[in-house]
Structure formats: structure tokens, C-alpha cells
Amino acid sequence: MPIDRESILSTPVKDNHLKADTSLYELMEQFSTSGGFTSSKVSVAYGIMKDMLTEENTTFLSFPADIISTGTRGIINDMVKKKLVDVIITTTGTLDHDIARSFRDYYCGSFDYPDRELKDLGINRLGSVVIPDESYGEIMEEFMQEKLKVLYEEKKVWPSWEIIYRIGLEIKNESSILYNAAKNGIKIFVPGITDGSFGSQLWSFREMHKDFMVDVLQDEHELSDIVFDAKKSGSLMIGGGISKHHTIWWNQFRGGLDYSVYITTAQEFDGSLSGAKLEEAISWKKIKPDARFVNVYGDATVLLPLLIAPFL
User: Fold this and answer.
1) In this structure, are strands 157-158 and 129-132 parallel, antiparallel, or unpaired?
2) Strands 123-126 and 87-90, how do they pair?
3) Positive or negative: CA dihedral 245, 249, 251, 255
4) In this predicted structure, what is the pLDDT of residue 1?
5) Nearest Cα residue to 76 out of 267, 276, 305
6) pLDDT confidence of residue 83
7) Cβ distance 109 to 146 under 8 Å?
8) Would you call 172 a catalytic residue per the annotation?
9) Backbone angles phi, psi at 158, to 5 degrees
10) Which among 147, 244, 286, 288 is annotated as catalytic?
11) Which residues of the chain are modeled with pLDDT < 50?
């Protein structure tokens, strides 16, 4: 788009002024004239999200599992409860952490804990979150094997989105993303379903029931229906990897996303998808050339609450 001096100098930088009762909505308004640096990008993201959530639009939410071990799980759960998104694409660890935390506690820790000593104590470290053995593998096996037996008696072949849906209904805990997504008809897709503890439980059950099958291609059929039925499509993508790629991959078949907000800590110099700016996706026809989009750099556990709170 051509630019000129007058248009570039159209919005003066204004100082931010905060009070004890300044709302996050008011803060977003101030960010719009702050000039720099990440605050201005958060403001752009907020504007895109506002249109994405108010216009007739199919909204995709993608994210990796690590943030579900943190309090940010509650932000995503609130988005699901409010039906702010239509489709979730994530990684298998999201299922692991959401199920495990529905029954057992994770604990606040430190990046600096000595990992060799943690191992001997039966404690696993995920960044600055610590997870005792009994809060992860044990509860996952106990819960999953019981529920898979019930599903197996009903039928032998399941698409993975439907397994996630049925497992979600059985959690019966309002803190659970899976539970509220199932209640609200928000389908969760995990393209790497055989990874993680959830995937291992599927494999373990299959070892004992050879006619039990997970039909991953049925998930792709469901996604194709969603994409081709969408009048407009938008995405809030947190982090990269397979969840980001699957989101933009499927949207290329409708000519690309109309809106997108990408929160990441990755840089593009190594050529990874996680570091790839949304601009790159235009060349692959995964984002429309005239789409509204922004790359926001920073920790999602800080940025996501700021960005989403005004909509909750």
C-alpha cells in the first residue's frame, strides 16, 4: 500500500496514564496511541479480535500444551465457556494436562530447581510448574482406561475428535476445557493424537483390543466441512508447531484466513514454522493478501489475559 508523509504522521504518540481502577479495556485504548513497542501490537491484536468475535466468522483457536499446565488454562476455559471460539486445534499434551488437573493439583515451582534431584523425588518440571508423578501418569491411566472401555463397548472405530468429545463429557469439572468444549459443541482437533500420555493410553488400550481403531482421517473430513462452510475465518494462534500449521493449512483451501492474531516467542531466523511471520503464510495462500493480521511477540501467559479480558 502506498504511503505518504501526511498519513505516516497522522497519529501522535500519547502518554499512558494509569489509576488503580483503570480497566483493561481502557488500557487497550491507551495502547492504541502508545506508539511502541509491543503495546501497540497488542492494541492492533485487540482491534482484530474485536471484529473477529463480533462479525459472522468461524474462529479457530490454536495453542500448544505447555500453557495448560499454568493458570492460563483458566483464560482459555473462560473463552470456551463464553463460546468466543468455534474450533480448537491443539497438541496432545493439552488433553493430558486438562484431564490431570481436573482431578489432581499441579504446583508453582521455579526454572532453577535442580532436575536430577526432582527426578529422585518423583517430581516432573515443566518450565516453572512442577508436577508430581501421581498428578500425571497415574491419574491419566486410571481415568482413560476406564472411559475407553465404555467407548469400546459402543463401537470399535472412533474419530479422535469424538473420543475427545466423549472423554470431555465424562470429566464433569467446570475447570476443564475439554468438558466445557464438549458441552458447548466446540470441537477439539489434535492432529498429533498419538503423542503424549493421552496417545499412549490409546495405544495401550489398542494393544489389548486389536479391533479398536482411531480414525484420524475422519477428523480431516470434519475440518474440511468446517472450513468450506465458513463465510469468513479467523484465528487466534498461540505458539507454533503442528497446531498452528494445521490451522493455516486447512484454511488455505478456502483461500486463506480473513483475520489472524499470532502470539509467539519464536524468531524467524531459523526458518521454523513457529518463527515464521504471518506474512510468510500469504505466499502459501494460507492467509489472504488483504487479511487483517498481526504478529505479537511475548509470553502468552502475560499477553493472552491482557488481550482477552475485555471480551470476558
Assistant:
1) unpaired
2) unpaired
3) positive
4) 62
5) 305
6) 97
7) no
8) no
9) -130, 135
10) 286
11) none
> Taking a C-beta distance cutoff of 8 angstroms, is the pair 76, 256 a contact?
no
Distance CA 218, CA 202 (A): 17
- Distance of alpha carbon 104 from its chain centroid, rounded? 22
pTM value surpassing 0.85: yes
Nearest CA among 104, 173, 176 for reference residue 137: 104
Are the C-beta atoms of residues 85 and 185 closer than 8 Å to each other? no
Assigned C-alpha cell, 293? 493480521
d(CA 252, CA 109): 41
19-43: pLDDT as tens digits: 999 998 899 999 999 998 999 999 9
Q: Is 285 left (phi over 0), alpha (psi -120 to 50) or beta?
A: left
